[in-house]
Design goal:
Strand content: under 5%
Number of strands: 0
Order of helices and strands: HHHHHH
Helix content: over 70%
Radius of gyration: 15 Å
Structural class: mainly alpha
Shape: globular
Number of helices: 6
Length: about 120
């Protein structure tokens, strides 16, 4: 179990470094599908893993290449702080089945948008 969790984290880290995606796309999906976590537990566990500065080494590589806008990142972080709190509170009011279906719809819509708008 711990090895699988570490592999899920590794996959999330690699894809985060490649595409800037966070826990939701990889970690939550894998915890639900592979570890059989309920959606609320998977989401809460993913957020808990992100509490530490887990992206610092990836950020360092992007910083060295001149690809970090600190001003924009600060505003994004402020929005993430408030948004994660509000989203966490809201999620507790939604049934697991509805939350899981909403997450799946979100992923599908984002995938189609990225595919259609690819240059």
């Amino acid at each position: 179990m711990n090895a699988l969790l570490a592999l899920i984290g590794l996959a999330g880290g690699v894809l985060s470094g490649l595409f800037g995606i966070g826990g939701g796309v990889i970690i939550v999906t894998a915890l639900v599908a592979l570890m059989r976590f309920p959606i609320h537990q998977a989401t809460g566990t993913s957020l808990a893993a992100l509490l530490l500065p887990v992206g610092i080494l990836g950020v360092r590589e992007y910083w060295k290449a001149g690809h970090v806008d600190v001003h924009a990142a600060a505003f994004l972080a402020g929005g993430l702080l408030i948004g994660a709190w509000g989203g966490g509170r809201w999620a507790q009011t939604i049934s697991p089945a509805t939350l899981q279906r909403a997450f799946a719809v979100f992923l599908a819509v984002m995938a189609v948008r990225l595919w259609v708008r690819a240059a």
